[in-house]
Amino acid sequence: MRSAGRYAPSPTGRQHLGNARTALLAWLSARRGGRAFVLRVEDLDPGRSRPIFEQTVIADLRWLGLDWDEGPDTGGALGPYRQSQRSELYAAALARLSSYACTCTRRSLREVASAPHGIEPVYPGTCREHARVSAGAAAIRWRAPPGIAQADDLRLGRLAQDVATEIGDFVLRRGDGAWAYQLAVVVDDAAMGIDEVVRGEDLWRVTPRQVWLQRALSLPTPRYLHVPLLLGPDGDKLSKRHGAPDLATLREGGADPARVVAELARSCGLLDAATQRVSPRELVAEFEPARLCGAGTPVDPARLRA
User: Fold this and answer.
1) Domain boundary among 227, 246, 267
2) Which of 72, 170, 244, 273 is 20 to 30 Å from 140 by CA-CA measure?
3) Would you call 204 exposed, middle or buried from its count of C-beta atoms within 10 A (0-12, 13-18, 19+)?
4) Positive or negative CA dihedral for 22, 152, 291, 39?
5) How confident is the model at residue 118 (pLDDT cuts 50, 70, 90)?
6) Average confidence (pLDDT) over 230-242
């Protein structure tokens, strides 16, 4: 199977500038490494996902100058490229794992004061010893085997977590029937031959549990590059309170995409301050993970609107 990288947006709203920069960096890394580039729509949440947002994402990315070899609009041999159409694969993976039904509510779990806490409240095992039954209105949790789960990142090094105390039995399928992100992303990356994952640093802490799932399912582990978050003028994560426009607003307002790309590239150390306009293809030859600055350079939304 060929090597590939990917960008996997969730169509639950318009793409903000942090999404755009992650897409740019994932594309640059794939093109620099001679990998195919896959656009995968992660529409697992039936209550929030909308076709109009998928269409907007595609229009925004093309406006920036990005392309892909496989995706929901172009097709490909390893599709479908919408997670809502891949349920059979997730069900097959779930059948290979030791799991159990859990009827605990989020509220009840928050009230369990003795539950250890890691990335999120670690499941205390309330339903762990129940007989396995059909999901119904219950969530399905993985009976995670004990051990030390660890992940390696090109920027951040190694992260090791004790499965019992820092991860616990996490959800594979929600009580409403929707597949959990952790299972779907592991299954899809393997099925689509994704051997490099470039995504935001905010997902770094959940990567060891994905590696633990890959190991349990005998799936390959891609190499990971978690990129810095986009910062606003005050040094905090860029958000609407900074006056940051979403990508569609810039596109619809007549902004210059080459200026937007230049600003995004400059914010993570790939471009000097003197360069005001650049296309993604002009950045490919110079892309190296080692050049990505750790904290990032703040972005001034006013420059993007110019």
Assistant:
1) 227
2) 72
3) middle
4) negative
5) very low
6) 76
> Please, is 255 exposed, middle or buried when counting C-beta atoms within 10 Å of its C-beta (0-12, 13-18, 19+)?
middle
Give the domain range for residue 259: 4-83+228-305
* Integer Cα distance of 269 and 17 in angstroms: 16
* Mean pLDDT value of segment 257-264: 94
Are 164 and 296 in the same domain? no
What tokens appear for 235 in the block?
Answer: 């040094």
* β-bridge pairing 148-153 and 157-162: antiparallel
Q: Is 5 exposed, middle or buried (0-12, 13-18, 19+ CB in 10 A)?
A: buried
Given 240, 277, 291, 303, the catalytic residue: 240
Q: Which of 195, 227, 259 finishes a domain?
A: 227
- 223 - beta bridge partners? 196
Retrieve residue 123's tokens: 């499941």
Domain CATH for 244? 3.40.50.620
Q: Which amino acid is at 240?
A: K
Spatial distance between the Cα atoms of 184 and 176, rounded to a whole number of angstroms: 16
Question: CA 80 to CA 71: how far, in whole Å?
Answer: 8
Mean pLDDT of the chain: 90
**Active-site annotation holds for 240:** yes
